[in-house]
Design a protein that fits this description.
Blueprint: E1 7-11, H1 15-27, E2 31-35, H2 38-47, E3 52-56, H3 64-74, E4 79-83, H4 88-96, E5 101-104, H5 109-120, E6 133-135, E7 138-141, E8 146-149, E9 152-153, H6 158-168, H7 177-185, H8 193-207, E10 217-220, E11 224-227
Parallel strand pairs: 1-2, 1-3, 3-4, 4-5
Antiparallel strand pairs: 6-7, 7-8, 8-9, 10-11
Helix pairs in contact: 2-3, 4-8, 6-7, 6-8, 7-8
Length: 229
């Protein structure tokens, strides 16, 4: 069931698709704002931010990548990119621009709604008595949504934070991409491992002193990722 009051901005230049998405999402209980162009989307979001942004990559004028970057500079709101093909370049570029997830057209409204719900979930708090997780200069406070490195605050998107908390709650445990897709995105074994890889790269640029030689979030070749205790 949709969270009451949750608002979604859908950015799509094709009126038929835009209307179809709006009706489907409203039928699921979401409140929907519409934008036909990238310029309209940025203006609308700047004026009144929404809880989720759904962005088509191919837009007239400012494209979806730039809309994503602009929204991300303003907010850590969950962003879903929509592409007409599962092209590796488009998908990775969208994720690198700051998107949390992506969908390929055509998609089922129920799948879109499920993705939105998954992105709106907060990271699970740690068990009582273990409210702070420390790894060298890195400190994570799951219940407060706070991350610091060397005492300085680190700004993460909601998805980056969920990813870090999942790893930090089980230091030394190796998570496969499929594990993380299920726990962080809710996609399960049929999800796209590129979501994990790009978010790990983004996370490293924010919490590692040297992202090219990570100290905390490390790759276990052939298996996945772990947080080094």
């Amino acid at each position: 069931m949709a969270v009451v009051g949750t608002r979604i901005l859908t950015v799509e230049d094709d009126e038929r698709i835009r209307t179809s998405v709006k009706l489907a999402l409203e039928d699921e209980g979401w409140q929907v704002e519409e934008a036909e162009t990238g310029e309209d989307a940025i203006s609308t979001f700047t004026r009144e931010p929404t809880d989720v942004v759904l962005i088509d990559i191919m837009l007239p004028g400012i494209d979806g990548f730039e809309v994503c970057r602009s929204v991300r500079r303003l907010s850590d709101v969950p962003i879903i990119m929509v592409t007409a093909r599962a092209d590796t370049h488009d998908v990775v570029a969208g994720l690198e621009a700051g998107a949390d997830d992506y969908l390929t057209k055509p998609f089922a409204p129920k799948e879109l709604s499920a993705r939105i719900r998954a992105l709106l979930r907060r990271a699970r708090p740690t068990a009582p008595g273990n409210p702070r997780l420390r790894f060298g200069e890195l400190e994570v406070v799951p219940q407060e949504g706070v991350v610091t490195r060397g005492g300085e605050p680190v700004h993460l998107t909601k998805t980056e934070f969920r990813l870090l908390v999942e790893l930090a709650n089980h230091p030394g445990t190796v998570f496969s991409r499929e594990d993380l897709l299920e726990k962080v995105w809710g996609h399960g074994v049929f999800g796209d491992g590129r979501l994990v890889d790009v978010h790990v790269r983004r996370l490293r640029t924010k919490i590692e002193a040297d992202p090219a030689d990570p100290r905390h979030v490390v790759t276990v070749r052939g298996l996945g990722y772990k947080l080094q205790p």
